[in-house]
């Protein structure tokens, strides 16, 4: 089965912002994302309260697949970057 990747809107915006702002590959955020993506077949960068993220997780559960889920709001990840987007 082909691996699929779901990226929340906030994570997509973060990655876009990082690339547009000239963030180097050595920032902790970029390193974390690259390491996570290379270590897992299916990753969901999620916010626990996001209805779209909940649905994405439910779809994988229905498919009997276990994605690696990163709950951004529960881990305090990318707080500064996400605050810049609001």
Q: Explain this structure to me?
A:
By secondary structure, this protein is mainly alpha-helical. The protein has one domain (6-15, 24-85): Glutaredoxin. 55% of the residues lie in helices and 12% in strands. The protein is built from five helices and three strands. Strands 1-2-3 form a three-stranded parallel β-sheet. Strand 2 (43-46), helix 3 (51-62) and strand 3 form a beta-alpha-beta unit. The longest helix has 12 residues, at 9-20. It is flat, with a radius of gyration of 13 Å. The termini are far apart. The relative contact order is 0.21. Mean pLDDT is 74; it is low at 1-5.
Condensed summary:
The protein contains five helices and three strands, in the order E-H-H-E-H-E-H-H.
Can you tell me the CATH class? Alpha Beta
Q: Please report which band the strand proportion falls in: under 5%, 5-15%, 15-25%, 25-35%, 35-45% or over 45%.
A: 5-15%
List segments where confidence is low: pLDDT < 50 over at least 5 consecutive residues.
Answer: 1-5
CATH architecture designation: 3-Layer(aba) Sandwich
User: Structural class from helices and strands?
Assistant: mainly alpha
Q: What share of residues is helical? A: 40-55%
| Count of beta strands | 3
Tell me the name of the CATH homologous superfamily: Glutaredoxin
Mean pLDDT: 74
Total of DSSP H or I helical runs spanning 4+ residues: 5
**Principal-axis shape:** flat
**Taking strands numbered 1, 2, ... along the chain, how are they ordered across the largest sheet?**
1-2-3
From the alpha carbons, calculate the radius of gyration and give it in angstroms: 13 Å
Termini separation comes to 37 Å
Topology order in helix (H) and strand (E) letters: EHHEHEHH
CATH topology: Glutaredoxin
The total number of structural domains is: 1
* Major sheet size, sense and barrel closure: 3 strands, parallel
